[in-house]
Write a structure and sequence with these properties.
Length: about 280
Protein backbone atom coordinates (compact mmCIF):
# COMPACT_ATOMS: atom_id res chain seq x y z
CA UNK A 1 0.00 0.00 0.00
CA UNK A 2 1.19 3.52 -0.80
CA UNK A 3 0.67 5.94 2.05
CA UNK A 4 -0.02 9.63 1.47
CA UNK A 5 1.73 12.73 2.72
CA UNK A 6 -0.28 14.79 5.20
CA UNK A 7 0.11 18.38 6.33
CA UNK A 8 1.46 19.42 9.69
CA UNK A 9 -1.18 20.90 11.99
CA UNK A 10 -0.94 24.71 12.36
CA UNK A 11 -0.94 24.54 16.16
CA UNK A 12 1.47 23.81 19.01
CA UNK A 13 0.78 20.07 18.91
CA UNK A 14 2.69 19.08 22.04
CA UNK A 15 1.08 21.78 24.17
CA UNK A 16 -2.42 21.00 22.87
CA UNK A 17 -2.05 17.23 23.42
CA UNK A 18 -1.05 17.87 27.02
CA UNK A 19 -4.07 20.17 27.46
CA UNK A 20 -6.65 17.98 25.70
CA UNK A 21 -9.10 16.11 27.92
CA UNK A 22 -12.32 14.24 27.23
CA UNK A 23 -15.15 16.64 28.05
CA UNK A 24 -18.53 15.25 29.05
CA UNK A 25 -20.12 18.34 30.61
CA UNK A 26 -20.78 21.39 28.43
CA UNK A 27 -22.35 24.80 28.66
CA UNK A 28 -25.99 24.72 27.55
CA UNK A 29 -25.39 26.47 24.23
CA UNK A 30 -24.34 25.72 20.69
CA UNK A 31 -21.08 26.80 19.10
CA UNK A 32 -21.06 30.34 17.79
CA UNK A 33 -21.49 30.57 14.04
CA UNK A 34 -17.93 31.91 13.82
CA UNK A 35 -16.46 28.92 15.67
CA UNK A 36 -18.63 26.44 13.77
CA UNK A 37 -17.52 27.91 10.44
CA UNK A 38 -13.85 27.97 11.43
CA UNK A 39 -13.93 24.35 12.65
CA UNK A 40 -15.79 22.96 9.64
CA UNK A 41 -13.65 24.88 7.17
CA UNK A 42 -10.54 23.42 8.78
CA UNK A 43 -12.10 19.97 8.70
CA UNK A 44 -12.52 20.30 4.93
CA UNK A 45 -8.73 20.64 4.58
CA UNK A 46 -7.87 17.48 6.52
CA UNK A 47 -6.65 14.24 4.98
CA UNK A 48 -5.05 11.06 6.28
CA UNK A 49 -2.06 8.92 5.26
CA UNK A 50 -4.33 6.09 4.07
CA UNK A 51 -6.10 7.92 1.26
CA UNK A 52 -9.46 7.01 2.80
CA UNK A 53 -12.37 9.46 2.58
CA UNK A 54 -13.54 10.21 6.12
CA UNK A 55 -16.93 11.93 6.18
CA UNK A 56 -17.68 14.27 9.08
CA UNK A 57 -21.25 15.58 9.42
CA UNK A 58 -22.44 18.28 11.80
CA UNK A 59 -25.59 17.79 13.87
CA UNK A 60 -27.28 20.46 15.98
CA UNK A 61 -29.93 19.63 18.57
CA UNK A 62 -31.16 23.21 18.30
CA UNK A 63 -31.46 23.29 14.51
CA UNK A 64 -33.50 20.52 12.97
CA UNK A 65 -32.34 17.49 14.91
CA UNK A 66 -34.63 17.65 17.93
CA UNK A 67 -35.92 14.12 17.34
CA UNK A 68 -32.45 12.59 17.32
CA UNK A 69 -31.72 10.71 20.52
CA UNK A 70 -28.53 12.53 21.37
CA UNK A 71 -29.15 12.83 25.06
CA UNK A 72 -29.07 9.13 25.87
CA UNK A 73 -25.40 8.69 26.66
CA UNK A 74 -25.84 9.30 30.37
CA UNK A 75 -22.52 10.94 31.02
CA UNK A 76 -22.85 13.63 28.31
CA UNK A 77 -24.47 16.78 29.69
CA UNK A 78 -25.31 20.05 27.97
CA UNK A 79 -23.95 19.28 24.49
CA UNK A 80 -25.98 20.83 21.67
CA UNK A 81 -23.64 20.01 18.79
CA UNK A 82 -22.28 16.71 17.54
CA UNK A 83 -20.08 15.47 14.73
CA UNK A 84 -20.89 12.12 13.16
CA UNK A 85 -18.07 10.23 11.44
CA UNK A 86 -18.74 7.71 8.66
CA UNK A 87 -16.52 5.84 6.22
CA UNK A 88 -16.73 3.11 3.59
CA UNK A 89 -15.51 -0.32 4.69
CA UNK A 90 -12.01 -0.65 3.24
CA UNK A 91 -8.44 -1.36 4.36
CA UNK A 92 -7.22 1.07 7.05
CA UNK A 93 -10.66 2.73 7.28
CA UNK A 94 -10.58 2.74 11.08
CA UNK A 95 -7.00 4.01 11.31
CA UNK A 96 -7.97 6.77 8.86
CA UNK A 97 -10.85 7.86 11.08
CA UNK A 98 -8.64 7.89 14.15
CA UNK A 99 -5.82 9.82 12.50
CA UNK A 100 -7.88 12.40 10.62
CA UNK A 101 -10.55 13.09 13.22
CA UNK A 102 -8.07 13.32 16.08
CA UNK A 103 -6.35 16.08 14.13
CA UNK A 104 -9.69 17.91 14.13
CA UNK A 105 -10.08 17.24 17.86
CA UNK A 106 -6.66 18.78 18.53
CA UNK A 107 -7.53 21.81 16.41
CA UNK A 108 -10.82 22.18 18.30
CA UNK A 109 -8.93 21.97 21.60
CA UNK A 110 -6.67 24.79 20.45
CA UNK A 111 -9.83 26.83 19.75
CA UNK A 112 -11.13 26.23 23.28
CA UNK A 113 -13.79 23.77 22.13
CA UNK A 114 -14.33 20.63 24.20
CA UNK A 115 -14.77 17.18 22.67
CA UNK A 116 -15.00 13.51 23.58
CA UNK A 117 -14.76 10.46 21.35
CA UNK A 118 -17.81 8.17 21.60
CA UNK A 119 -17.48 4.80 19.92
CA UNK A 120 -20.03 2.02 19.93
CA UNK A 121 -22.29 3.69 22.51
CA UNK A 122 -25.17 4.75 20.27
CA UNK A 123 -27.75 3.32 17.90
CA UNK A 124 -27.46 3.86 14.16
CA UNK A 125 -31.24 4.30 13.80
CA UNK A 126 -31.18 7.30 16.15
CA UNK A 127 -29.24 9.27 13.52
CA UNK A 128 -30.81 8.07 10.30
CA UNK A 129 -32.85 11.29 9.88
CA UNK A 130 -30.02 13.62 10.90
CA UNK A 131 -27.15 12.57 8.63
CA UNK A 132 -26.55 11.11 5.22
CA UNK A 133 -25.55 7.49 5.68
CA UNK A 134 -25.53 4.71 3.13
CA UNK A 135 -26.38 1.11 3.85
CA UNK A 136 -22.76 0.13 3.29
CA UNK A 137 -21.30 2.97 5.37
CA UNK A 138 -19.58 2.25 8.65
CA UNK A 139 -20.67 4.57 11.45
CA UNK A 140 -18.37 3.73 14.36
CA UNK A 141 -18.23 6.97 16.32
CA UNK A 142 -19.62 10.39 17.07
CA UNK A 143 -18.23 13.35 18.97
CA UNK A 144 -20.10 15.86 21.14
CA UNK A 145 -18.54 19.30 21.03
CA UNK A 146 -19.10 22.59 22.75
CA UNK A 147 -17.74 24.92 25.38
CA UNK A 148 -16.63 22.98 28.50
CA UNK A 149 -18.62 23.75 31.63
CA UNK A 150 -16.60 25.12 34.51
CA UNK A 151 -17.82 22.34 36.78
CA UNK A 152 -17.94 18.67 35.83
CA UNK A 153 -21.15 16.79 36.54
CA UNK A 154 -21.04 14.25 39.36
CA UNK A 155 -21.57 11.46 36.82
CA UNK A 156 -18.63 12.68 34.73
CA UNK A 157 -16.39 12.61 37.79
CA UNK A 158 -17.50 9.05 38.54
CA UNK A 159 -16.97 8.03 34.90
CA UNK A 160 -13.45 9.46 34.74
CA UNK A 161 -12.56 7.84 38.04
CA UNK A 162 -13.84 4.44 36.93
CA UNK A 163 -11.98 4.62 33.61
CA UNK A 164 -8.80 5.99 35.14
CA UNK A 165 -8.89 8.63 32.40
CA UNK A 166 -5.86 10.53 33.65
CA UNK A 167 -3.70 7.43 34.00
CA UNK A 168 -1.51 6.09 31.22
CA UNK A 169 0.57 2.93 30.99
CA UNK A 170 4.30 3.27 31.61
CA UNK A 171 6.82 3.26 28.77
CA UNK A 172 7.95 -0.30 29.48
CA UNK A 173 4.43 -1.58 28.86
CA UNK A 174 4.05 0.18 25.51
CA UNK A 175 7.41 0.70 23.82
CA UNK A 176 10.02 -1.92 22.95
CA UNK A 177 13.50 -2.11 21.44
CA UNK A 178 14.30 -4.46 18.53
CA UNK A 179 11.59 -6.95 19.54
CA UNK A 180 9.02 -7.53 22.30
CA UNK A 181 11.54 -8.87 24.81
CA UNK A 182 13.25 -5.59 25.72
CA UNK A 183 11.65 -2.35 26.86
CA UNK A 184 12.51 0.91 25.08
CA UNK A 185 13.99 3.60 27.30
CA UNK A 186 13.64 7.31 26.69
CA UNK A 187 17.35 7.40 25.93
CA UNK A 188 16.83 4.68 23.30
CA UNK A 189 14.04 6.78 21.74
CA UNK A 190 16.44 9.67 21.15
CA UNK A 191 14.94 12.52 19.14
CA UNK A 192 11.63 10.64 18.97
CA UNK A 193 11.10 10.72 22.75
CA UNK A 194 8.52 13.52 22.55
CA UNK A 195 6.65 11.85 19.69
CA UNK A 196 6.34 8.61 21.68
CA UNK A 197 5.40 10.44 24.87
CA UNK A 198 2.60 12.30 23.05
CA UNK A 199 1.45 8.94 21.64
CA UNK A 200 1.38 7.59 25.20
CA UNK A 201 -1.00 10.40 26.19
CA UNK A 202 -3.49 9.65 23.40
CA UNK A 203 -7.12 8.93 24.33
CA UNK A 204 -8.62 5.49 23.71
CA UNK A 205 -11.91 3.70 24.26
CA UNK A 206 -12.27 2.85 27.98
CA UNK A 207 -8.69 4.12 28.30
CA UNK A 208 -7.47 0.68 27.15
CA UNK A 209 -4.40 2.10 25.33
CA UNK A 210 -4.25 -0.82 22.86
CA UNK A 211 -1.01 0.22 21.20
CA UNK A 212 2.53 -1.01 21.19
CA UNK A 213 5.56 0.28 19.28
CA UNK A 214 8.77 -1.59 18.56
CA UNK A 215 11.77 0.53 17.56
CA UNK A 216 14.08 -1.38 15.24
CA UNK A 217 16.99 0.82 14.18
CA UNK A 218 15.30 3.74 12.33
CA UNK A 219 11.95 1.98 12.12
CA UNK A 220 8.99 2.29 14.48
CA UNK A 221 6.60 -0.65 14.08
CA UNK A 222 3.03 -0.01 15.27
CA UNK A 223 0.95 -2.84 16.72
CA UNK A 224 -2.62 -3.08 18.00
CA UNK A 225 -2.97 -5.07 21.21
CA UNK A 226 -6.16 -7.12 21.64
CA UNK A 227 -7.35 -10.69 22.07
CA UNK A 228 -8.31 -12.55 18.91
CA UNK A 229 -11.62 -13.54 20.53
CA UNK A 230 -12.96 -9.96 20.50
CA UNK A 231 -15.91 -9.34 18.21
CA UNK A 232 -15.32 -7.41 15.00
CA UNK A 233 -16.99 -4.20 16.19
CA UNK A 234 -14.69 -3.97 19.21
CA UNK A 235 -11.67 -4.72 17.03
CA UNK A 236 -12.65 -1.81 14.78
CA UNK A 237 -12.66 0.53 17.77
CA UNK A 238 -9.18 -0.67 18.74
CA UNK A 239 -7.93 0.24 15.27
CA UNK A 240 -9.50 3.69 15.57
CA UNK A 241 -7.43 4.07 18.74
CA UNK A 242 -4.28 3.16 16.79
CA UNK A 243 -5.10 5.89 14.28
CA UNK A 244 -5.43 8.39 17.13
CA UNK A 245 -2.09 7.31 18.55
CA UNK A 246 -0.45 7.55 15.14
CA UNK A 247 -1.78 11.11 14.77
CA UNK A 248 -0.13 12.11 18.05
CA UNK A 249 3.17 10.46 17.12
CA UNK A 250 3.31 11.69 13.51
CA UNK A 251 2.14 15.24 14.14
CA UNK A 252 4.52 15.66 17.08
CA UNK A 253 7.41 14.36 14.97
CA UNK A 254 6.58 16.78 12.15
CA UNK A 255 6.26 19.68 14.61
CA UNK A 256 9.88 19.00 15.65
CA UNK A 257 11.09 18.94 12.05
CA UNK A 258 11.44 15.16 11.95
CA UNK A 259 10.59 13.40 8.70
CA UNK A 260 9.69 9.84 7.90
CA UNK A 261 7.57 7.63 5.68
CA UNK A 262 4.82 5.17 6.50
CA UNK A 263 5.25 1.69 5.04
CA UNK A 264 4.15 -1.90 5.50
CA UNK A 265 7.18 -3.95 6.52
CA UNK A 266 8.00 -7.62 6.85
CA UNK A 267 8.45 -8.17 10.57
CA UNK A 268 11.39 -10.43 11.29
CA UNK A 269 10.99 -10.89 15.04
CA UNK A 270 8.49 -12.95 17.02
CA UNK A 271 5.10 -11.31 17.55
CA UNK A 272 2.91 -12.24 20.56
CA UNK A 273 -0.52 -13.66 19.74
CA UNK A 274 -2.36 -10.58 20.98
CA UNK A 275 -0.24 -8.14 18.94
CA UNK A 276 -1.52 -7.24 15.48
CA UNK A 277 0.86 -5.45 13.14
CA UNK A 278 -0.54 -2.28 11.52
CA UNK A 279 2.28 -0.35 9.81
CA UNK A 280 5.74 1.14 10.30
CA UNK A 281 7.16 4.64 10.41
CA UNK A 282 10.60 4.81 8.76
CA UNK A 283 12.63 7.77 10.01
CA UNK A 284 14.70 9.61 7.38
Amino acid sequence: MEFKKVDRLPINVKEVIKRRISNRTYEERSLTEEDKKKLLEFNSTLTNPFGVEVKVQYISKEKGADDVQLGTYGTIKGAKDFLAITVKDQPYAMEAIGYQFENLVLYATDMGIGTVWLAGTFKRKDFINAIEIGEDDLFPCICPLGYPAQKQSFLEKITKASLGSKKRKDWDKLFFLEDFTKALTKADAGIYEDALEMLRLAPSATNSQPWAVVKERNKFHFFCNYKNTLNDDVKKIKHIDIGIALSHFHQTAMSKGLNGNLQVEDIGFSIPDNMHYVLSYIAD
